[in-house]
Amino acid sequence: MNYLLLIAAMVAVTFLPRYLPFYLASKLQLPRSVEQALNYVPIAVLTIIVVQTSLFREGQLAMSLDNPYIGASIVAFVVALWQKRLFVTILAGLVSYAVLRYWLLG
Amino acid sequence: MISNKLQSTIEGARDTLPLVFAAIPFAIVYGALGHAQGLPDWVVIAISMVVFAGASQFIAITLMATGAALPVIVLTVFVVNLRHMLYAVSLIPYVKQFSQLKRLPMAFTLTDETYAVAFNRATQDDPSAHFAHYYLGSAAFMYLNWQLCTWIGLVAGNQFPQLTSFGLDIAMVVAFIGIVVPHLKIPSHWVCALVAALSGTLTYDWPNQSGLLFSSVIAIISGVMFENAFNKKTIIKKEAP
């Protein structure tokens, strides 16, 4: 396989979609409806990454108490609702994960 | 002023710290996997340095090892990485102010992690507060960490089997929860999140993360439609005598 050609092609298809919107940023005026929709991007994409990582274990849907990701995610969710500091949410999520995992394995 | 810029850079790196930790096992596993699959070291390192796109890199080296044809690999990488285009479009209002020269490295280092913290900064604080420095502080930290851990994975080889199965991706999950929740301000945001969760679950087994792209679009449209319907109702109420 021609590695150089492959890497160059991969750079093109990963960099251009990231750069094109930035390049055009000052040239195009986004319609109001598009700007409105863009506010939903982080909510939509990050929520999907969260559920697809925490609800599935080894490619299978694992919506049971054996899956410590779910308990830890719920704790992180509640803590994030209660206060806004990212660090506190992460700490609460990780501690509850460790406790759940230890408890489930023990 | 220089110290303000430096401070913004440091704040960007600081806010990304939990996500940098979360990325460590992924980069190590990537390096180890590339090594195990018999790819030349320089190829594994070069992909991390010039492609710099987590999930796409995994899929690329896996496909390369199975002897997939070049167009198949490139097309798959393109689709898997396409969500970054959504990220870039949503950052347009905040990068407009910067020169094209600054936008180049910003685009090159756009990842899930830097997007998440940068969008937070752009929408919650004063967006003019050295946004580019904040962004590049976050991105540089992610980038350097990714290179270092790719190299560790290569050198340590098979010392780290299946790191993700030990549950190290939990840090990423709870970090993303901590980023999304403060954005849920009005009912339509919740509608978007609920549709995203439901659709993301149902489309999990779609190939090459096409379920992620499909679900994102459905969730965004749901949120916008709900917001518009809700606003129309309040306008009508206001206009009624």
- Biggest sheet architecture of chain A: 2 strands, antiparallel
What is the molecular shape of chain B?
globular
The spatial strand order of the largest sheet of chain A comes to 1-2
Outline type of chain A: extended
Question: How many H/I helices of chain B?
Answer: 11
Fraction of helical residues of chain A: over 70%
Strand portion of chain B: under 5%
Work out the radius of gyration of chain B. 20 Å
Structural summary, described in words:
The complex is a heterodimer of chains A (106) and B (241). The model of chain A has no long low-confidence stretch (mean pLDDT 89). Chain A is mainly alpha-helical and 106 residues long. Chain A is extended and about 55 Å long. The longest helix of chain A is centred in the first third of the chain and has 22 residues, at 3-24. Chain A is built from five helices and two strands. In chain A, helix 4 runs antiparallel to helix 5. Chain A starts with a helix and ends with a helix. In chain A, strand 1 (56-57) and strand 2 (60-61) form a beta hairpin. With 241 residues, chain B is mainly alpha-helical. Chain B has two domains: 2-183, no CATH class; 184-241. Helix content of chain B is 77%, strand content 0%. The longest helix of chain B has 35 residues, at 2-36. Chain B is globular and about 60 Å long. The model of chain B has no long low-confidence stretch (mean pLDDT 86). Classes of the chains: A mainly alpha (106), B mainly alpha (241). Chains A and B meet through helix 1, helix 2, helix 3, helix 4 and helix 5 of A and helix 2, helix 3, helix 4, helix 5 and helix 6 of B.
Keywords:
heterodimer, A: 106 residues, mainly alpha, two-stranded antiparallel sheet, 5 helices, 2 strands, 4% strand, B: 241 residues, 2 domains, 11 helices, 0% strand, globular
Please give the structural blueprint.
The complex is a heterodimer of chains A (106) and B (241).
Chain A: H1 3-24, H2 32-38, H3 41-54, E1 56-57, E2 60-61, H4 68-82, H5 86-105
Antiparallel strand pairs in A: 1-2
Helix pairs in contact in A: 4-5
Chain B: H1 2-36, H2 41-50, H3 54-65, H4 70-80, H5 83-95, H6 100-108, H7 112-124, H8 131-156, H9 170-180, H10 187-202, H11 210-239
